[in-house]
Design brief:
The structure is a single chain. Helix content is 18%, strand content 25%. The chain has 91 residues and is of the alpha+beta class. The chain has a domain of 57 residues. Strands 1-2 form a two-stranded antiparallel sheet. A two-stranded antiparallel sheet has the order 3-4. The protein starts with 28 loop residues before the first strand and ends in a 6-residue tail after the last strand.
């Protein structure tokens, strides 16, 4: 059965050089390389955090080249998992 769902997210734009996001202890995210391809494993909680981060990048006033370093399980005490770099000239 198909369901129509809506993602609604309201945030304050922190300016072109800042992006804040909130995490919980339940966020689980890790990355591995499988057959030469990066694979991101996430639970639903971490998906919501990433969706909010991408919404802020897409809609906010961030400058080209702005980047985030995200740690495993979105926990700042863990090692870096991957980077997101805003690049409007991709392609």
């Amino acid at each position: 059965m198909d369901r129509k769902l809506k993602f609604q997210f309201e945030f304050v734009d922190g300016g072109p050089r800042s992006l804040d996001y909130e995490t919980t202890d339940g966020d689980k995210a890790s990355i591995s390389i499988e057959d030469g391809v990066p694979v991101l494993y996430v639970n639903r909680s971490a998906c919501r955090v990433l969706a909010q981060i991408f919404a802020k990048l897409a809609m906010g006033s961030h400058v080209d080249g702005f980047h985030l370093h995200l740690e495993e399980n979105l926990d700042p005490d863990r090692g870096e998992m991957f980077r997101i770099i805003l690049n409007d000239l991709c392609g």
